[in-house]
Specification:
The chain is an alpha+beta fold. The chain has 10 helices and 4 strands, in the order ααααββββαααααα. The radius of gyration is 25 Å and the shape is elongated. The relative contact order is 0.07.
Length: about 210
């Protein structure tokens, strides 16, 4: 199971999503989570152990005035998952980032005015992110149009399925060289080199092969 599959296995479960949503606000005890989510503490611990194994949450021991010390859980890794599906395009990407310890420290309160200032800063960032999403949507649409055209050219130029797949994937992944593409497709280097070599000759020569 690769990193994307692991992260998807986390967020596909609504209970784990709710646990993470609670933990990003502040560290929680398992009993707190059980009460907030309306689940058994044993069930919460099962999810927390899975999240710990995936390095998404950590915990620390905290003394209690009412009995033995208790463990509080907090998030340790943030992540963003992007899935693009459209004409000629299927792409998945995941970006992980460690949550720095300083973000887990709770500053001394400065009153409502400071909270309003922070809210305005969040609002400004949200506006900028919305602008980036709009620009990203435009670029994805342009990429889809290019890949759709590439697919049409490949279909009429290459007679067999394997050749079409190799050439199309080469266009789709400009970050890969021929050797890397062969490895990704599980094919011999010389086979991929031979098929992609046709890109360097004229269209008439390709059609005559």
């Amino acid at each position: 199971m690769d990193e994307l599959d692991r992260m998807l296995s986390v967020i596909e479960n609504p209970t784990r999503r709710r646990i993470l949503e609670a933990l990003v606000r502040e560290p929680h005890y398992p009993l707190q989570l059980a009460r907030e989510l309306g689940l058994s503490q044993q069930g919460i611990m099962k999810h927390l152990r899975m999240l710990e194994e995936l390095d998404l949450v950590g915990s620390f021991s905290e003394e209690s005035e009412r009995g033995p010390s208790r463990r509080r859980y907090f998030p340790t890794t943030g992540f963003t998952i992007v899935v693009d599906i459209g004409p000629g395009l299927f792409n998945t990407d995941i970006v992980t980032r460690p949550i720095e310890e300083r973000l887990l420290e709770r500053p001394v309160g400065e009153g409502g005015r400071r909270l309003l200032d922070l809210r305005q800063e969040v609002e400004a960032i949200d506006r900028e992110l919305d602008g980036l999403k709009g620009r990203r949507a435009q670029l994805i649409a342009q990429k889809e149009a290019l890949l759709e055209e590439a697919g049409q050219v490949v279909e009429v130029t290459y007679p067999d399925y394997r050749s079409r797949k190799i050439v199309y994937e080469y266009v789709l992944h400009p970050e890969m060289d021929k050797k890397e593409l062969a490895e990704a497709l599980g094919l011999r280097d010389d086979l991929v080199e031979g098929i992609l070599g046709t890109l360097e000759v004229g269209d008439d020569d390709i059609g005559g092969q």
